[in-house]
């Protein structure tokens, strides 16, 4: 067992930050806590770390009841969003800090620091100070410092939130490779869906202090358990069941007339000629995203929605603003009944 959170709740005044949450993190796995601001993900991470005490429930770390254990006794490494490096210490000294506090032998400290510098690929920068590093390099040093004492669990709180998009993308791949090397049980908090899907083995989706769904990135994308999960994991169009786009899909799409229908942009089929399964639409706007094309479309009843096309499909269709096309859903979903 890596981490077991058993029916944990935490309240701050009148605000219930975590509400009867139960989650299991398997040993050696990398799990993301994903949700919007205020969903309880950071509070849950702090509860696991011992920085907060639950009002009710139990927390087990590596099979041991750690609910009321101090931070120091939990054997946990913690990495914050803003690095928290010591500005007056070099990279080597920052990484060595925890080892020296633990009174490790000098040779052991030196060997471990060199090993970690190689792991984070900063061997030549050991004598620099944090102010002389880029944001991505500082975050790698913070990770090395957290790993120095060989923690059983590594917790990351929005680790890439302060970095620009390109650096974040690079560090996501680096973190995944790092995890595959060290295999430490890891939990990280993020509000970035793409980040969670790219890095993690499993994702815990949180909303209003509760767990909405737990699953692999593919499970959550393909089989969302609720409208919130479908809306939060990946792009989606939300349209009324009365939209003409769904006329040919089934006579009664949801069982309740008011239930919306969720349609992924990748599941919109665009044709140049009508048939009995399509409805007319107008191309409102074409946006080139590089690796794919985003097409904004409007139906005759005024409903607007988005389609994503590959470059090859877009080139074949040769779409332009104002053009009339014919569309149909390949797959859509309501939470009254699934659509084929």
UniProtKB/TrEMBL annotation:
Instruction: Identify a single GO molecular function assigned to this protein.
Output: ABC-type quaternary ammonium compound transporting activity
How this chain sits in the membrane, per its record, is: Peripheral membrane protein
> SUPFAM superfamilies, from UniProt?
MOP-like, P-loop containing nucleoside triphosphate hydrolases
Q: Where in the cell is it found?
A: Cell inner membrane
The enzyme's E.C. designation: 7.6.2.9
Q: Where is the ABC transporter domain?
A: 3-233
Q: Which SMART domains match?
A: AAA
Report whether Repressor shows up as a keyword of the record: no
Does the record's keyword annotation contain Transmembrane? Answer: no
Report keywords, A-Z: ATP-binding, Nucleotide-binding, Sulfate transport, Translocase, Transport
Q: Which GO terms describe its cellular component?
A: ATP-binding cassette (ABC) transporter complex
NCBIfam families associated with the record: 3a0106s01 (TIGR00968)
Report what the protein is called: ABC-type quaternary amine transporter
Q: What species is given as this protein's source?
A: Leptolyngbya sp. NK1-12
């Amino acid at each position: 067992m890596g981490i077991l959170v058993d029916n944990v709740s935490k309240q701050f005044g009148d605000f219930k930050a975590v509400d009867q949450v139960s989650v299991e993190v398997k040993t050696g796995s990398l799990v993301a806590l994903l949700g919007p601001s205020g969903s309880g993900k950071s509070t849950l991470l702090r509860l696991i770390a011992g920085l907060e005490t639950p009002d009710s429930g139990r927390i087990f770390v590596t099979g041991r009841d750690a609910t009321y254990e101090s931070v120091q006794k939990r054997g946990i490494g913690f990495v914050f969003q803003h690095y928290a490096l010591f500005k007056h210490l070099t990279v080597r000294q920052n990484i060595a800090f925890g080892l020296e506090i633990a009174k490790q032998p000098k040779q052991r400290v030196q060997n471990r620091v060199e090993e970690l510098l190689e792991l984070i690929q900063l061997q030549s920068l050991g004598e620099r100070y944090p102010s002389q590093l880029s944001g991505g390099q500082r975050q790698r040093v913070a990770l090395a410092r957290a790993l120095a004492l060989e923690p059983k669990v590594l917790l990351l709180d929005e680790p890439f939130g302060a970095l620009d998009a390109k650096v974040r993308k690079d560090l996501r791949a680096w973190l995944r490779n790092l995890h595959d090397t060290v295999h430490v049980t890891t939990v990280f908090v993020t509000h970035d869906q793409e980040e969670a899907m790219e890095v993690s083995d499993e994702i815990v989706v949180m909303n209003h202090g509760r767990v909405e769904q737990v699953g692999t990135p593919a499970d959550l994308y393909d089989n969302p358990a609720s409208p919130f999960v479908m809306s939060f994991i990946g792009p989606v169009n939300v349209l009324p069941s009365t939209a003409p786009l769904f006329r040919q899909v089934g006579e009664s799409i949801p069982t309740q007339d008011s239930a919306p229908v969720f349609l992924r942009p990748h599941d919109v089929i665009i044709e140049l000629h009508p048939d009995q399964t399509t409805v007319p639409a107008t191309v409102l706007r074409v946006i080139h995203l590089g690796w794919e094309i985003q097409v904004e479309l409007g139906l005759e009843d005024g409903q607007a929605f988005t389609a994503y096309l590959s470059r090859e499909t877009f080139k074949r269709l040769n779409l332009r603003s104002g053009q009339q096309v014919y569309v149909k859903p390949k797959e859509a979903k309501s939470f009254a009944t699934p659509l084929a």
